[in-house]
């Protein structure tokens, strides 16, 4: 059967550049389909996608540092100055 | 969606100093890191962050809650840090080709010749060792400023693309390019670190 206007398949090197657009949901419907068609057949790119997701997850777990007691004191003072000038 | 900071804001406006300090504690690290992407020294970044809090206190009556408090706050910081302009802003042209993955890892046809090592399974238990987190932190600190700004706000602090575009005055497309480059760098670092941990 004749297939009409099928877009050429994406290759791995294109996948790694499109991955953020894919995760951000900003690919066109056609490109999203091409992207997913490639993934379905390519374990390496699937692993790559999993790694990007893991990178995002681990980045989200980077901890913030607590204020030192000294800094708490300084910001308390800043606050009191503001209250006085109001 | 209600602003997670709303309660602390109400409390500090009616005289609760402790609520203000809590609010500072909640946002201080991100603000400091963001300030550092604009200015040359940690001391100046501290100063810009303090100035931003004072400006936020003085301007709190003009905060109408149209955006979230932190979007409003971070935008004040970005503006102040930018105008402090201690560092000549290195502009990184967005169109400069910077592949997500070393082209040497693909065949001439763009197929993986050196595929990614699978490390996602192993990372969970290894993160407890803190080595992965510190490798990731160093990689984040080493990103070019504009990539660092976007990754920090999006992935560390969890802001939406729209909020990040507002704060950093970026188009959505540019925001995505910077995010893509930044995340790709971090992934490369993790892949290298997991291999050696």
Q: Which fold does the CATH topology of the largest domain in chain B refer to?
A: Arc Repressor Mutant, subunit A
**N-end to C-end Cα span of chain A:** 79 Å
Structural domains of chain B: how many: 2
Report the biggest beta sheet of chain B as strand number plus sense, adding barrel if it closes: none
Secondary structure: number of strands of chain A: 0
Question: In terms of per-residue confidence, which ranges of chain A show pLDDT below 50 for 5 or more consecutive residues?
Answer: none
Q: Fraction of residues of chain A in helices?
A: 55-70%
CATH architecture of the largest domain in chain B: Orthogonal Bundle
| Count of alpha and pi helical runs of chain A | 4
- Rg of chain A (C-alpha, Å): 24 Å
The helix/strand order of chain B is HHHHHHHHH
Question: Which residues of chain B sit in consecutive blocks of at least 5 with pLDDT less than 50?
Answer: none
Report the top-level CATH class of chain A.
Mainly Alpha
Written as H for each helix and E for each strand, in order along the chain, the element string of chain A is HHHH
Mean pLDDT of chain A: 91
Strand content of chain B: under 5%
CATH architectural designation of chain A: Orthogonal Bundle
Rg of chain B, rounded, reads: 19 Å
The protein's oligomeric status is heterodimer
Number of domains of chain A: 1
């Amino acid at each position: 059967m004749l297939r009409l206007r099928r877009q050429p398949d994406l290759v791995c090197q294109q996948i790694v550049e499109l991955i953020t657009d894919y995760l951000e949901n900003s690919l066109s419907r056609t490109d999203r389909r091409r992207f997913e068609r490639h993934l379905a057949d390519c374990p390496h790119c699937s692993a790559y996608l999993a790694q990007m997701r893991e990178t995002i997850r681990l980045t989200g777990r980077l901890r913030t540092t607590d204020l030192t007691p000294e800094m708490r004191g300084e910001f308390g003072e800043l606050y009191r100055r503001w209250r006085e000038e109001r | 969606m209600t602003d997670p900071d709303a309660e602390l804001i109400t409390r500090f406006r009616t005289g609760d100093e402790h609520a203000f300090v809590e609010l500072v504690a909640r946002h201080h690290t991100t603000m400091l890191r963001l300030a550092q992407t604009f200015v040359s020294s940690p001391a100046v970044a501290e100063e810009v962050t303090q100035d931003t809090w004072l400006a936020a206190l003085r301007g709190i009556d003009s905060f109408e809650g149209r955006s979230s408090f932190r979007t409003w706050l971070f935008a004040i910081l970005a503006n102040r840090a930018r105008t402090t302009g201690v560092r000549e802003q290195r502009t990184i042209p967005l169109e400069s080709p910077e592949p997500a993955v070393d082209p040497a890892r693909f065949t001439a046809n763009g197929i993986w010749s050196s595929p990614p090592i699978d490390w996602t399974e192993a990372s969970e238990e290894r993160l407890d060792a803190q080595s992965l987190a510190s490798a990731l932190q160093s990689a984040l600190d080493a990103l070019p400023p504009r990539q660092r700004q976007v990754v920090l706000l999006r992935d560390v602090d969890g802001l939406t693309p729209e909020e990040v575009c507002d704060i950093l005055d970026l188009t959505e497309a540019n925001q995505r390019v910077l995010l893509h480059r930044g995340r790709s760098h971090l992934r490369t670092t993790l892949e290298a670190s997991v291999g050696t941990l």
